[in-house]
Structures are given as structure tokens and as C-alpha cells.
Amino acid sequence: MRCADWAEPVRSRARELLAELLDAGTAVTLAPMILRVADRYRGDHALGLLDGVLRRAPRERLAPLLVSGDRAVRRYAYRVAVEEGTLSPVELARVAAEDDDAVLQGRCAEAALAAGLGAEALDVLLGGRNPQARSAGVTALRRLGHPERAVEFLADRSALVRACARYVLRQHGTDPQPWYRARCADPAVEPGAAIGLAECGDRADAPLLWALLEHPAPGVRARAVAGLRALDVTDVRRLRPLLDDPAPGVVGEVTLALLPSARDLPEEWLMRRLDAGRPRWERVSAWRLLDAHGDAVRLRAAVPLLSDADVRLRTWAEHAVRRVAHREPRALRSPEVAALLDRAGAVGR
């Protein structure tokens, strides 16, 4: 810490001592402190000492830092390892595919690609549980001469991976749209294929997505609704029954699709859906649609929820009341809005 001291004599002596004490062994223990001090004014000197020691140390000395519980230490250690080339493409690919740190995922995926992917490292990336790894692997397929394998990822659960797969195929001269159309007409369609069709299709593909609203798999139904919303072909009459879908994910997507047309849904019907006996996702959906109706309807829905047992609904209702109360001076309020705010009591004042 004194390596960043404001007093030059203290700072100089501390730096001399640290240079004497710091070696491959003590670097592992002191790395967390040095990285924190590095954020201070004049703190970069200690970091430079650490950097020099670790770059000269054998690979095994860096290993404890690569598995440190301190995220900053791990990121620093992997940066050094990547720059020094101490990790193989397969090792880098495994980190990209399995680590839960998005920064390390991206850094190691890029490093693995730059180091030259072999078949094993490529398979590790393509089988990764996170989108950054899979997208890196898919993008590499073109350079490695295997663009046809990108078809396997057209229905990936990640939009990023699907986009990379379409890019690779188009660069190879293959239009992915016919593949999506064929998959959406197949009873075994994957959820990713439904939204993928919307991502690269047009309104002429809407009938295929409308048909998927009756698919037995909730994921497919939800992605089909999302696809219709992306194509801007939503229909209140046809989507409204899906607000009663047993799958929360489907109800959530339908709610998003209907928000722009929320005022076309009967207020009384939506109010009944706020009943405490209904599933939580239906109540949340009803609140969001009522909230989109405007101030008067918003307040009518919010006031009864101020004493609701559901913390999130109660919080949303409180925010809605405060928002109306603070935005509109008392003298300009309509009689109904004024009465509702009076009912809300102290929350609205």
C-alpha cells in the first residue's frame, strides 16, 4: 500500500522492499492487494513489479491465480497467460466454454481463435454452455472450411449464435430462410427455429408462426409469439386467448406483444385478472397491460394492490401512485384521479 504513498521517501522505501520481497511465491499471496492498490494514484508501480515477476515465472506458478476466488485476480492472470501464450487452444476453449465470467469467456474465445483452433478445441467451443463460446466456434467454421456445420446452430437458443450461423451460411452461398421454413412446418420444430424464422424472414412467413401457437411445447409457442411481434403482425383477437396459457413464458411474450394495443383489451376483464387467486404471472401480465392504459386506469388498478401480499405488485402499485401524484398538481387533477389518490392515502402524497 505504501508504494502509492503521497510522501516520496515513504513511497521509494516501500517500492524497494516490495521489489526485494516479491517473487513467484509471494506474488500469489500479494496479487489481490496489489491489484487493488493499482487503482490508486501512483499505484501502477506495484502492478508493474507483479507483472514482471509473473511473466518470468514458470507456468505452474501462475496456476493458483487462474483459479483464484477473486475475479479481478483471475482476469489479470488470464490476461498474462494469454499474452505470454502459456495456455493451449484447447485450454483456452475450455475456459471460454465453461467459465461463468463473461469477460473471460470473450477473452479466451478470441485467444483460442487467434492461436489456431484444432478439431478438439473447435468442438469444445461449439459445445460451450455460453453464447460467446458457441458463437466464436460457429464463426470459425467458415475459416476452417466447415461452413456446413453452421446449420446445426440455426436454431440455437441464443440470438447471437443464430446470427453467426446465418452469416457463415450466407458467406458460403446458402440462404438459411428455406431451412427455417421447413423446420417451422415440422412438428419437431425447436423454439430457436421459430424465432429464427422471424429474424431472417418477412411478413409472408407469419402463417407458419401463427400455426405454432398451438404447438404442445411451451418454448415453441413463446418463441412463435416473439417472432410475430418481431414481424409486427400481432393481432389482439388471436393473441388474447394466449393470456390464459398455462406456461408463464408464453403469457410474458403475449403481454409484450399486446402492450402497444393494450387499450383494445377490456379494462374490466383485465381487472378481474388481478385477483389474488390467479397465478402470479397472469396477475403481472394484467398489471402491465392495465398500466399501459393511462393514468386513470393505472390508478384504479394500483389502489387495491397497495395492500397486496405480493411484494413486487405492491411495489409497482406504490410507484404508480407516486408517479401520478408527483407529476400532476392537485389543482389540475380530474375528480376521479383526485379521489383515487385520496384513497391511496399517504403513499400518494
Molecular structure report:
It is built from 21 helices and no strands. The radius of gyration is 29 Å and the shape is flat. α11 packs across α12, α14 packs parallel to α16 and α19 packs across α20 (311-327). It has helices at residues 8-21, 24-37, 44-56, 59-66, 71-84, 89-98, 102-115, 119-126, 131-143, 159-171, 177-184, 191-200, 206-211, 218-230, 236-239, 248-258, 267-272, 280-291, 295-305, 311-327, 335-344. The protein is an all-alpha fold.
Keywords:
mainly alpha, 349 residues, 21 helices
Question: Topology of this protein?
Answer:
Blueprint: H1 8-21, H2 24-37, H3 44-56, H4 59-66, H5 71-84, H6 89-98, H7 102-115, H8 119-126, H9 131-143, H10 159-171, H11 177-184, H12 191-200, H13 206-211, H14 218-230, H15 236-239, H16 248-258, H17 267-272, H18 280-291, H19 295-305, H20 311-327, H21 335-344
* Oligomer type: single chain
Strand content: under 5%
Biggest sheet overview: none
What Rg is obtained from the alpha carbons, in whole angstroms? 29 Å
CA-CA gap between termini: 50 Å
Which spans of ≥5 residues are poorly predicted at pLDDT below 50? none
- Mean pLDDT comes to 90
Q: Give the number of DSSP strands.
A: 0
Question: DSSP helix count?
Answer: 21
Helix content: 55-70%
Q: Order of helices and strands, N to C?
A: HHHHHHHHHHHHHHHHHHHHH
Structural class given helices, strands, pairing?
A: mainly alpha
Molecular shape: flat
